[in-house]
C-alpha cells in the first residue's frame, strides 16, 4: 500500500497552525493538596466508577497525592493516587486519571485510567 503525500494547501495549513502555537504550550502538572474537598470528590468518583464497571468490590479510602493539569480544549485533568480497600480489609493504591470540569454535572466527568500500583 502506497501512502499519498499531503496536498500542498493542507501541508501549508498544518505548518501555519504549528507556527502559531505559543511557545511552551506543553502542559504543566501542578501538585494539589490531597485533603481539598474537590480532590477527595474526584478520588471517590474514580473508585466508584471503576468499581461499578468492573465489580471489583472496592471502597474508597482516600487520596494519597495528586496533581492537576489544564486540559487542551477546557477542563482539568486529575492524576491521583488513591487508596481503596476490599471487603476482606486489604488495601491497595491505584493511579487514576480523571478529566472533568469542576462545578459541572457528573455526566461530563470521565475516568480515563485506573490501575493498581506497586508501593515502593
Automatic annotation (TrEMBL):
GO molecular function: cysteine-type endopeptidase inhibitor activity
One Pfam family recorded for the sequence: SQAPI
SUPFAM superfamilies: Cystatin/monellin
Signal peptide segment: 1-27
Domain Cystatin: from-to ranges: 39-102
Record key words, sorted: Plant defense, Protease inhibitor, Signal, Thiol protease inhibitor
GO biological process, one term: defense response
Highest taxon of the lineage: Eukaryota
Family according to the record: Belongs to the cystatin family. Phytocystatin subfamily.
PANTHER family to which the protein is assigned, alphabetical: PHLOEM FILAMENT PROTEIN (PTHR47116)
Official protein name in the record: Cystatin domain-containing protein
Amino acid at each position: 500500500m502506497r501512502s499519498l503525500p499531503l496536498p500542498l494547501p493542507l501541508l501549508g495549513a498544518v505548518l501555519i497552525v504549528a507556527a502559531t502555537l505559543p511557545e511552551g504550550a506543553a502542559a504543566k502538572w501542578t501538585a494539589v493538596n490531597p485533603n481539598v474537598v474537590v480532590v477527595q470528590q474526584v478520588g471517590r468518583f474514580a473508585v466508584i466508577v471503576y468499581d461499578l464497571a468492573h465489580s471489583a468490590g472496592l471502597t474508597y479510602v482516600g487520596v494519597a497525592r495528586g496533581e492537576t493539569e489544564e486540559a487542551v480544549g477546557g477542563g482539568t485533568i486529575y492524576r491521583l493516587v488513591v487508596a481503596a480497600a476490599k471487603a476482606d480489609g486489604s488495601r491497595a493504591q491505584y493511579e487514576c486519571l480523571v478529566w472533568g470540569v469542576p462545578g459541572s454535572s457528573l455526566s461530563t466527568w470521565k475516568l480515563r485510567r485506573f490501575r493498581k500500583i506497586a508501593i515502593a
